[in-house]
Amino acid sequence: MNNNEIQDIEKRTDYTKILDEFGISHIEEVLPRIGTNHHFFRRGIVFAHRDFDKILDRVEQDKNFAIISGRGPSSDLHFGHLILFELIRYLQEKYHCKFFMPLSDDEKYVFRKIDSLEESYALSLENAIDILAIGFKPENVYVYISSITPRIQYLALTFSTSQTYNAIKAALGFNGEENAGTVFYTCIQAAHILHPTTDHNLPVVVPIGLDQDVYMRLTRDIARKRRITLPASLYIKYLKGLTGGPMSSSAPETCIYLRDSPEIVKKKIMNAFTGGRATIREQRELGANPDICTIYDWFNKFFIRDDKDLEEILNGCKNGNLICGLDCKPRLLGMVQEYLKNHKKRREIVIKNLSEYFDHEIDLSVLKEADSI
Fold it and tell me: Can you give the pTM of this predicted structure?
């Protein structure tokens, strides 16, 4: 799979075909064992898995496991990132498991998303604060910056002997012109994923989008060769970008960052792509199309947790009782603004206890909020 194919996965909606291509199972197979208390599982936002049935076997035997998922710090977080970490928070609370969160500054450096590792240090802390402010407690959360964690570098080095350049080249579509760091990073990624197993004897589950599955397959190859328990994975659907296409941190118009100003948030939402008609009169008569609507997608995947409420929005959209710019966009705007206001308060609490989440010492003086610590 080359880089263009990886990006194309984000645009594809033929999920069943993709699962067959990669040997991934539908979530329905294990859903009775997980339950549908969370709307992520009721609505198919978590739609597939690989070996999560084996994780559930451990749960039913009163054995523990770990969740591993990180963040590459090259920009502020946006709402598209929150689905992943909301899922992790729910799973951690449900199963009382450990959560390991690498901040992959090394990835962003070798793929030239940042100019220096020093540049990413403050951003790593800022990203961590935003993630932890979702509702994580310091107990059983282990955060670290990848490039300054010797154990990760050691494991990556040992794993490198179980991975070939040809396998990496074929998986990522390299042409030989890439810098050596991008090749070695697959081994660092494997170290992130496998170190809870090698160091804590905890099998892991990795919640990801399908575009990241290539790294899971490379890591599972290493695990097989080294006789390490294979990592499991859960697959989530992304939020639609505000312009109707994929959401991207490098395209600000497609997303809402957690530190966007109220004015910017309003402008982005009121300009968002919808399934509405050209005129209000036409929409009253014919209804709108929620299947292509960004606003409805955000309601469905993140903001409307009550199924009855969502169904009323769906029906109102289709029968023309709801108008995008008069009803749905203002409602989403209010929800986003309320979320951001509460998130800012939670950030302040996390900042005061930030060092308790990390596996190594951190320099809090680099934070913009350092004066309030």
Answer: 0.91
